[in-house]
From TrEMBL, chains A, B:
Cited InterPro entries: Homeodomain-like_sf, HTH-type_TetR-like_transc_reg, HTH_TetR, MT1864/Rv1816-like_C, Tet_transcr_reg_TetR-rel_C_sf
Domain of life: Bacteria
Protein name stated in the entry: TetR family transcriptional regulator
Keywords per UniProt: DNA-binding, Transcription, Transcription regulation
DNA-binding residues (ranges): 42-61
This protein's record includes keyword Ribonucleoprotein: no
Organism: Caballeronia novacaledonica
SUPFAM superfamilies the record matches: Homeodomain-like (SSF46689), Tetracyclin repressor-like, C-terminal domain (SSF48498)
Length: 231, 231
DNA sequence: GTCTATAGTGTGATAGAC
DNA sequence: GTCTATCACACTATAGAC
């Protein structure tokens, strides 16, 4: 790294301060969203929380939707981390089990973040490529990474001839994802899926979508539901 | 029916007119929601569309959320009708196939109505029983009827010993529902589930959740995805 | 029952002074 | 870079005249 003169150092400090404020805005936004949901994150409320004027926000983010996009990126990174923690599991079925559970746990633990990531209405001007005012990029753009981790496991299962379905592995991956998302989404909406705890639905879904690891199957032996808590 | 005097007839006419206007409000609301989503259904816009003042609406509906509840009820009735059209199918697996397809078709054909029914955030004051300002009743209250139609089929499968999973039929029903909902929800959000058409995901999911009817399985024979259109 | 008028509150975003 | 002040809207819901 080259030595810098006083001039460069000063601009460097400015850049750091600037970046620090941006981080602070994101930090507070993250907490508000986590507590009250993105819908109730207003620029005024946010400005008051960080003790700046609303106008100051627009020096760091082009729009409210721009903040949404940043938070979504954070969320996707966090979810991907939760997945990466299990990539070391050699057996693809066991790995899928761990990742599936991690996915639903993530969604139930941070419902509002999950909502922002996966349950926001698509951009109205969807036809236009790229990104719109609300920061809706292509939803898959970030989720694709985590999806591919699931798909990888299915590819391995197929290669080992342990995938009963004849469908393409990527199709199975999307099917399982849809299943997990459905569990989270319906649970988040409150009264839906009233009978069965999420944990059990996850087990059932994983078993439905690929042959379980030997000795891992039939965790729930009887037809009666367990009394495991919903979350 | 008793003859009515002129007095009763007049009040009868009033009641009919009143009911007619209520229906008209609902009709226009339904169309606006279908086209632009419930979020953009404002009382002003609605009033202008029916050529009344905004205040007139409040004589027929307690609030905007009250309209939402009415539309939700309509939607649930419509979905239940789509299900009832298949109750005559004797074989429970074939019936589930038809109902599952009908469910996803409904969701993709009327995305905004589906959103209103199943993808709205739960009421903030959920702890309080009953209904809130936004007309969010217990989401399951109406969906329960359709869910029980799915559960019935699983009960029959279990009775015929054709349900491989040992889980409770109602748990399987909720699992399958979650799966179908996930497909619709992710497809509605635009870019998610990019590779696989919804129709194929539905087939895969149905096959995953219960033994398919003989001769019906393996519609998709190869690992490559078909080029069936997404909707 | 229906209207006009408006209260009351919120919003995102910007212009222009400093 | 930050602020004040404000634009230009939107919204639900109600009061009170007719």
């Amino acid at each position: 790294m080259p030595r810098m003169g006083p001039q460069e150092r000063r601009t460097e400090q400015r850049r750091e301060q600037r970046q620090a404020l941006r981080e602070r805005i994101l930090e507070v936004s993250r907490e508000i969203v986590k507590r009250e949901g993105f819908a109730s994150l207003s620029m005024r409320k946010l400005a008051e929380a960080i003790d700046y004027s609303p106008a100051a926000l627009y020096l760091h983010f082009k729009s409210r939707g721009d903040i949404a996009r940043a938070l979504r990126r954070e969320g996707h990174a966090s979810l991907r981390d939760a997945f990466l923690a299990h990539t070391s599991i050699a057996d693809p079925a066991a790995r899928l089990n761990a990742m599936g559970r991690a996915y639903v746990e993530f969604g139930l633990a941070e419902p509002e973040t999950y909502r922002l990531m996966f349950m926001e209405p698509a951009s109205s001007a969807e036809a236009a490529a790229g990104v719109d005012d609300n920061g809706n990029g292509r939803a898959a753009e970030s989720g694709a990474a985590t999806l591919s981790l699931i798909a990888d496991a299915f590819v391995e299962l197929r290669a080992a001839d342990r995938l009963p379905s004849r469908a393409a592995p990527v199709a199975c991956a999307e099917g399982l994802w849809a299943n997990l998302h459905g569990i989270v989404a319906l649970k988040l909406n409150g009264a839906a899926l009233p009978e069965t705890p999420a944990a059990m639905l996850v087990e059932l879904s994983l078993d439905a979508w690929f042959a379980p690891v030997k000795g891992t199957e039939l965790r729930f032996s009887g037809p009666d539901r367990s009394d495991t808590s919903t979350r």
